[in-house]
Design a protein that fits this description.
The protein is of the alpha/beta class. The protein has 10 helices and 13 strands. The protein has 2 domains: 171 residues, Thiolase/Chalcone synthase (Peroxisomal Thiolase, Chain A, domain 1); 147 residues, Thiolase/Chalcone synthase (Peroxisomal Thiolase, Chain A, domain 1). Helices cover 31% and strands 24% of the residues. α4 links the parallel β4 and β5. α7 runs parallel beside α8. The chain starts with a strand and ends with a strand. The structure holds oxa(dethia)-CoA.
C-alpha cells in the first residue's frame, strides 16, 4: 500500500497594518533602538486594532488559502490553531474561525504550546491526514501578544508582536511533506515564561487585576540559555536522525525569538545565513506565528523537493523540530 504523507500545499499569512517601532517604544519605557537591535535583532512589530482578535487574522489566512487553491471553506475538514492568545479562554479560536468563514463541514481545536504552538499543531494535523480521517486540514499558528504584554515592562514589551500564518495540509502519495518530527516538553521550566493570572490556579480577581500577574512574565536570561541549547540540539538531532548533512538542508525556518538564538542554531547545523529565514526585524516574536509567517514570506523561493527544517523553543518549556520535503513548485 502507498504510504500517505501530509504535505503543505498552500501557505498564507496575516499581520495587522499598525507598526510599533523601537523609536515608539523608547518613548514608552527606558530603552533604545541600539539596545533592542543589538540584543534581539528586532526593529518593529505589528499591533492589532483594539476591536480585532486572532480569529480576524485566521479568517484572512483561511480565505487566502482557499483563494490560492480554488476551494471553498466547505471543502475544509479541520482547522487547528496553535496559540496562547485566542479570542477567548473558551470557546476555541478554531471554532470561531470555522463559523466566521463558513467552514460548516470542519471541526477543530486550539493547541497551547507557546512559541512551539505551530509545530505542535502541525504534527497534530499530520496525524489526521496520515490516518486518512481528513483530506484538507488548515493549521494556523498565531498570537495577539499585545493582549498579554505589559507595555511598562521593558524586559518583554520590546520582544513581542501580533501576527499569524497558516498552511493547508493534504495527503501526498509521492513522499513529499512532513518526513519526521521531534517534540519535547519540560514543565519544570514553566515559571520562567508564564502568564500567572487568568487560569484555574490564579483566576483574575479584584486583587490581581492590573498587576504584573495578568501579563507575560519572562526571565529572559534563563529562557535564552535553555532556548539556545535546546533549539540547536533538536535541530542537529533531526538532521542526524534523517542522515541529512548541512548541504542537504535547503532552509532552516527558525522560531523568531532572538537573532542570537537563530544564529546559534544555524551555526550548529552548519548552515550559512542565506539558508536561514529571518524576518524578526519586521515582526518581532509573534509566538506561534513566527514559523508560518516565514514560510509565507519565503514561499516564492522554495522549490519542490527542498529539505526544510522548522525549529522552535518556547514557554512551558516546549521545543521541537520538523523535517519537511517541500511539495509545492
Ligand atoms: O520566544 C520564546 C522564548 N523566548 C526567548 O527565547 C527569549 C529569550 N531571551 C532573550 O531573548 C533575551 O534574554 C532578552 C532579549 C529578553 C534580554 O536580553 P539579554 O541580553 O539577556 O539582557 P539581560 O536581561 O541580561 O539584560 C542586560 C542589561 C541589564 O542591565 P544591567 O543589569 O547589565 O545594567 C538590563 O537591565 O540590559 C538591561 N535591559 C535593557 N536595556 C535597555 C533589559 N531590557 C532592556 C531594554 N532596554 N529593553
Amino acid at each position: 500500500m502507498t504510504k500517505i504523507t501530509a504535505s503543505i500545499t498552500a501557505v498564507h499569512g496575516a499581520v495587522p497594518p499598525n507598526k510599533l517601532t523601537n523609536e515608539d517604544l523608547s518613548k514608552m519605557v527606558d530603552t533604545n533602538d541600539e539596545w533592542i537591535v543589538s540584543r534581539t535583532g528586532i526593529k518593529e512589530r505589528r499591533i492589532i486594532d483594539k476591536d480585532k482578535a486572532l480569529s480576524d487574522l485566521g479568517v484572512e489566512i483561511v480565505e487566502g488559502i482557499c483563494k490560492k487553491k480554488g476551494i471553498t471553506p466547505l471543502d475544509i475538514d479541520m482547522i487547528i490553531v496553535g496559540t496562547i492568545s485566542g479570542d477567548h479562554r473558551f470557546p476555541s479560536t478554531s471554532n470561531i474561525i470555522c463559523d466566521k468563514v463558513g467552514a460548516k463541514n470542519a471541526w477543530g481545536f486550539d493547541v497551547n504550546a507557546a512559541c512551539s504552538g505551530f509545530l505542535f499543531a502541525l504534527t497534530t494535523g499530520q496525524q489526521f491526514i496520515e490516518n486518512q480521517s481528513a483530506k484538507r486540514v488548515i493549521v494556523i499558528g498565531g498570537d495577539i501578544m499585545s493582549s498579554v504584554i505589559d507595555y511598562t515592562d521593558r524586559a518583554t514589551c520590546i520582544i513581542f508582536g501580533d501576527g499569524a500564518g497558516g498552511v493547508l495540509l493534504e495527503p501526498d502519495e509521492e513522499g513529499f511533506g512532513i518526513q519526521d518530527s521531534i517534540m519535547k516538553v519540560d514543565g519544570a521550566g514553566r515559571e520562567f515564561l508564564i502568564q500567572h493570572a487568568g487560569g484555574s490556579l490564579s483566576p483574575i480577581t479584584k486583587e490581581n487585576v492590573e498587576t504584573p500577574a495578568m501579563y507575560v512574565h519572562q526571565e529572559g536570561k534563563t529562557v535564552f540559555k535553555f532556548a539556545v541549547t535546546n533549539m540547536a540540539d533538536v535541530s542537529e538531532a533531526i538532521m542526524k536522525k534523517n542522515n541529512l548533512s548541512s548541504d542537504d538542508v535547503a532552509w532552516l525556518v527558525p522560531h523568531q525569538a532572538n537573532l542570537r538564538i537563530i544564529d546559534a542554531t544555524a551555526r550548529r547545523m552548519g548552515l550559512s545565513k542565506d539558508k536561514v529565514m529571518i524576518n524578526i526585524e519586521k515582526y518581532g516574536n509573534t509566538t506561534s506565528g513566527t514559523i508560518p509567517l516565514c514560510l509565507w514570506e519565503w514561499e516564492d523561493k522554495l522549490k519542490k523537493g527542498d529539505n526544510i527544517i522548522l525549529a522552535a523553543f518556547g514557554g512551558g518549556f516546549t521545543w521541537g523540530a520538523i523535517y519537511i520535503k517541500w511539495a509545492i513548485g
